[in-house]
Amino acid sequence: MSSVAQTRKLSQPTAANPARRKFLIGGIVIIAVVIWLIVTSTLAGAQFFYTVDELKARGSDAVGKPVRLAGAVLGDTIEYDPETLTLTFTVVHISADTQLINDDGGLAAALDAAVADPTRNQVQISYIGVKPDLLKHAAEAIVSGELGADGVFHANELLLRCPTRYEEALPGQVEG
Predict the structure, then answer these.
(1) How many CB atoms lie within 10 A of CB 146?
(2) In this structure, which CATH number among 3.20.19.10, 2.40.50.140, 3.40.50.10420, 3.40.640.10 belongs to the domain 48-167?
(3) How many angstroms from the chain centroid is the CA of residue 63?
């Protein structure tokens, strides 16, 4: 065997070669770090959607965790300070079951029934921002934020649905 053939044979990586072992270990570490980053960022961005009853049932387990909450607005609890842009109001439980809502006569009827029932669970909402025009009695509020230890839900996003505003437009859209 010539010296060139011996040199080629010696320079090819083998399982016992320390350079190859370091490369494999480095690759495994990189893959593990990427998997860890994906899992932790997915869990950090996770947000659960709850009704008022479900949030109340979780108790202290829900404090400080990102949550999306839906409820019917009690109109007489709406308070807005234009100086500080602080908006507070209370929402009451409405069912998340579409079939139950439809059986009750639709979303508008379900919202009206919810705000008329004083025995339903309630959560106070605190939101910093401009007061939306649709915020009124028996509107559906969908808020994202965290439940504070004081029992107040601190919202950073506020969406409103007022079904009575759109009911009149619906037949016209269907016809023409």
Answers:
(1) 15
(2) 2.40.50.140
(3) 14
- Sign of the dihedral defined by the CA atoms of residues 149, 154, 159, 165, in that order: positive
pLDDT in tens, 95-105: 888 888 888 78
In the chain, where the domains are located: 3-43, 48-167
Structure tokens at 11: 């320079």
- The pLDDT value recorded for residue 48 is 81
* CA-angle at 166, arms to 163 and 169, nearest 5°: 150
- The torsion angles phi and psi of 118, rounded to 5 degrees, stand at -70, -10
Q: Tell me phi and psi for residue 7, to 5 degrees.
A: -65, -45
Does the predicted TM-score (pTM) go above 0.85? no
Task: Write the CB contacts of 66 (distance below 8 Å, at least 6 apart in sequence).
Answer: 46, 47, 48, 144, 145, 146
> Whole-angstrom Cα distance, residue 111 to residue 116?
9
| Rg (the chain; Cα; Å) | 28
Query: Which position has the token pair 């339903």?
Result: 120
77/79 Cα distance (integer angstroms): 6
Structure tokens, 149: 């230890």
